[in-house]
Automatic annotation (TrEMBL):
<keyword id="KW-0539">Nucleus</keyword>
<feature type="compositionally biased region" description="Polar residues">
    <location>
        <begin position="177"/>
        <end position="197"/>
    </location>
</feature>
<dbReference type="InterPro" id="IPR033467">
    <property type="entry name" value="Tesmin/TSO1-like_CXC"/>
</dbReference>
<dbReference type="InterPro" id="IPR005172">
    <property type="entry name" value="CRC"/>
</dbReference>
<feature type="region of interest" description="Disordered">
    <location>
        <begin position="483"/>
        <end position="521"/>
    </location>
</feature>
<comment type="similarity">
    <text>Belongs to the lin-54 family.</text>
</comment>
<feature type="compositionally biased region" description="Basic and acidic residues">
    <location>
        <begin position="497"/>
        <end position="515"/>
    </location>
</feature>
<dbReference type="Pfam" id="PF03638">
    <property type="entry name" value="TCR"/>
</dbReference>
<dbReference type="GO" id="GO:0006355">
    <property type="term" value="P:regulation of DNA-templated transcription"/>
</dbReference>
<feature type="compositionally biased region" description="Low complexity">
    <location>
        <begin position="394"/>
        <end position="405"/>
    </location>
</feature>
<feature type="domain" description="CRC">
    <location>
        <begin position="201"/>
        <end position="324"/>
    </location>
</feature>
<protein>
    <recommendedName>
        <fullName>CRC domain-containing protein</fullName>
    </recommendedName>
</protein>
<feature type="region of interest" description="Disordered">
    <location>
        <begin position="382"/>
        <end position="405"/>
    </location>
</feature>
<dbReference type="GO" id="GO:0005634">
    <property type="term" value="C:nucleus"/>
</dbReference>
<feature type="region of interest" description="Disordered">
    <location>
        <begin position="177"/>
        <end position="200"/>
    </location>
</feature>
<feature type="signal peptide">
    <location>
        <begin position="1"/>
        <end position="21"/>
    </location>
</feature>
<dbReference type="InterPro" id="IPR028307">
    <property type="entry name" value="Lin-54_fam"/>
</dbReference>
Length: 654
DNA sequence: GAGTTTGAAACT
DNA sequence: CAGTTTCAAACTC
């Protein structure tokens, strides 16, 4: 994705809805249910359900305000938000942003769609008619661009027996096409800003035989209507929404993940995500490729196309798409990847604030080479499989000591250099650091809470975010919402004591088993991403004293600042220490080269956590890739990254 | 633009 | 689940 798209995304996140007063009328609230709230309501808004919280909001609104009763004859009527209600929506939206920050896989979960429009309209109707009436909405100018994903929501709900009893609150966005300037952009940017106006020009398909109703069709697979395509006999449009709906269902039947991003954030760390050559490498294909003849160096290979390295998931033959591959070098695209790549990366919130103390050198290919010299993936299945476990542990373990103890075969076989900090930062140090950071976090939180305790406003008390009932009721659907990446497996178990997360916890325990026992704080730092929905609700639940959403957000900001500052100090010390060691080694002429190597490695650590040129920690994320930084909502949005949530949770746990 | 190659998706 | 067919994009000329 070109930089312009990054800007676009960040601007999308920065959208200040309150200032679009003239757009208020575009927002509608569904009518209320009749039977005293006995009806099921849910927000139907797409992957990750970033606006799931609106479900709670609507319910609270329903309870506290007079909303027209929903009757069979008016259930499709739309109810306009009054200004007061609208402001609550805006507030909630901001809170969502602040809670999830740039790591929000859910908030920015749909770049294709995110590039299209902000919230415009909510419609409630029985699920039974949703699909067909969606077409009417579309004709009225509102496009259910998330339609394919919406249907995730329809599936597997044992609590819904009758489609007429289940009301879907649909979230509609105004279709955003490069050729039709967005309404939302008119007040936030000059109309001639084509850079942003044409962010992700949709690729047009040329389907001939699939009616654009199979995953063969890129449009269909992307979850968007065909528009401007060269397809023949196309049914992937609003006029064929019914048959399309069937096709979507059938597709999901075959593969429930069909419409979810193929590229998840893998174990490749943030540092990995951009090495000294600027290569964006993070993410990995969830299913992996199965290339046979392309050597994974052509766009036939989905990994290569996504500009990511092949991973353990891949079953390719003669793969050359690994770090250090000489064949790959000249082919590497330095443009930060294809649209596909960025979309998927964004979809998965792959760029979060990940703190790693140890440079990672593990790569699929390297490990292969270590365990077998064959160039065919599958041929050395056994040894490769065996190597996988330690590899993952080492690649996601911030403690050098851990990887050296645990991955002895790897380390002893082909270690190019040894970290200067390998002997400096021990497990207990990391543990102490984590404790310290948690302490800081707690102190800051307390301070902020004290400061804000009197600021509680009546309005905010109304806004309920991410109701637990919602979440728990749909627990079985969690996998429908949250991309199940490997990082997910790791992270979702972190510091979470909720009984209903046993599965995740056990995953986490397994990790600990396979690896080295690490403190919760270390685990916190290890993890790339998390179940944000759960985290959000967990965070809310963990802090009952703060029903004030804004307070919570601000507390997070303060916490983040404090924690990052401390961590920066620590890193600076580390850098100094490393430099001293380097000096020491340098004096030994034989070690000269190695020291140089380490310097850059060490520098990259610091660089990724703290801008080397400034003393101030930016309010944005600690992550360094331009991509994630750009996605980050601007300062005003009070963004909070993963680290925040983690620390928050950890604090609650302690 | 036509023809070939390729590997995912679909099918059996 | 594996083997085969279908499919549309990627690639080549
Ligand atoms: Zn198509
Ligand atoms: Zn199309
Ligand atoms: Zn089409
Ligand atoms: Zn491949
Ligand atoms: Zn691959
Ligand atoms: Zn490969």
């Amino acid at each position: 994705m070109p930089p312009s798209c990054l800007l676009f995304l960040s601007l999308f996140l920065a959208l200040d809805f309150p200032h679009r007063s003239e757009k208020k009328s575009d927002l509608y609230l569904p009518a209320a249910a009749p039977c005293g709230g006995s009806r099921l309501y849910d927000l139907n808004c797409g992957a990750g359900d970033p606006f799931r919280c609106f479900g709670g909001f609507l319910r609270s609104l329903q309870g506290s305000r007079s909303i027209p009763e929903l009757r069979p004859d008016n259930m499709s009527e739309e109810f306009r938000f009054c200004d007061e209600e609208w402001s609550k929506v805006l507030h909630l939206q901001r809170r969502l942003i602040s809670l999830r920050g740039n790591s929000s896989a859910s908030w920015i979960s749909q770049p294709r769609r995110a590039a299209e429009a902000p919230l415009r309209r909510l419609v409630c109707r029985p699920r039974a008619v949703a699909a067909t009436e969606a077409a009417a909405s579309h004709r009225a100018g509102f496009s259910p661009h998330v339609a394919p994903v919406n249907f995730f929501y329809f599936r597997g709900r044992s609590d819904i027996e009758n489609d007429n009893d289940f009301f879907v609150i649909e979230f509609y966005t105004n279709t955003c096409k490069p050729e039709s300037p967005k309404p939302w952009s008119q007040d936030s940017r000059p109309a001639n800003d084509t850079k942003v106006g044409t962010p992700t020009r949709k690729k047009n398909c040329n389907c001939k035989n699939s009616k654009c109703l199979k995953l063969y069709c890129e449009c269909f697979a992307a979850g968007v209507y065909c528009d401007g395509c060269n397809c023949t006999n196309c049914c992937n449009n609003v006029d064929n929404e019914t048959v399309r709906h069937v096709a979507v269902e059938a597709t999901l039947e075959r593969n429930p993940n069909a419409f979810r991003p193929k590229i998840g954030s893998g174990t490749q760390t943030l540092r990995d995500s951009r090495d000294e050559t600027g290569e964006p490498l993070f993410g990995r294909h969830n299913k992996g490729c199965h290339c046979k003849k392309s050597e994974c160096l052509k766009k036939y290979c989905e990994c290569f196309q996504a500009n990511i390295l092949c991973s353990e998931n891949c079953k390719c033959l003669d793969c050359k798409n690994f770090e250090g591959s000489m064949e790959r070098k000249p082919l590497f695209r330095g443009d930060h990847g294809s649209t596909l790549y960025m979309q998927h990366a964004a979809l998965n919130g792959a760029a979060g604030a990940h703190i790693f103390l140890s440079p990672t050198i593990s790569r699929k290919r390297k490990i292969q080479d270590v365990f077998s010299c064959t160039s065919v993936n599958g041929q050395s299945t056994k040894s490769f499989t065996q190597s996988k476990t330690p590899v993952q542990v080492s690649s996601s373990t911030p403690i050098p000591a851990a990887s050296s103890t645990n991955t002895a075969p790897v380390a002893s076989t082909k270690v190019i250099y040894r970290s200067l900090l390998a002997d400096t930062v021990r497990t207990e140090h990391v543990r102490d650091l984590c404790k310290l950071l948690v302490m800081v976090s707690g102190e800051v939180a307390k301070t902020v809470a004290d400061r804000q305790i009197e600021e509680s406003s009546v309005l905010e008390g109304h806004v309920e975010c991410s109701p637990h009932s919602d979440y728990e009721r749909d627990q079985s659907q969690k996998d429908l919402y949250m991309p199940r990446t490997s990082a997910d497996e790791c992270s979702s178990g972190i510091s979470l004591d909720k009984p209903d997360k046993e599965e995740s916890r056990s995953e986490c325990r397994e990790r600990e088993k396979g690896g080295k026992p690490v403190s919760p704080g270390t685990l916190v730092l290890m993890c790339n991403e998390k179940d944000m929905i759960f985290m959000a609700s967990q965070a809310a639940a963990a802090d009952p004293s703060s029903s004030n959403n804004r307070s919570t957000s601000e507390a997070y900001v303060e916490q983040e600042k404090g924690v990052l500052t401390k961590f920066r100090d620590y890193l600076l010390k580390l850098v100094t220490c490393g430099q001293m060691k380097e000096e020491k080694y340098r004096s030994m002429s034989s070690m000269h080269e190695r020291a140089c190597h380490m310097e850059s490695a060490l520098y990259s650590i610091a660089r990724n956590s703290v801008p080397a040129t400034t003393v101030e920690i930016p309010l944005t994320r600690t992550s360094s890739p331009a991509y994630s930084t750009n996605i980050c909502p601007p300062v005003g949005c009070q963004t909070l990254g993963n680290g925040d949530m983690k620390l928050k949770l950890e604090k609650a746990e302690m």
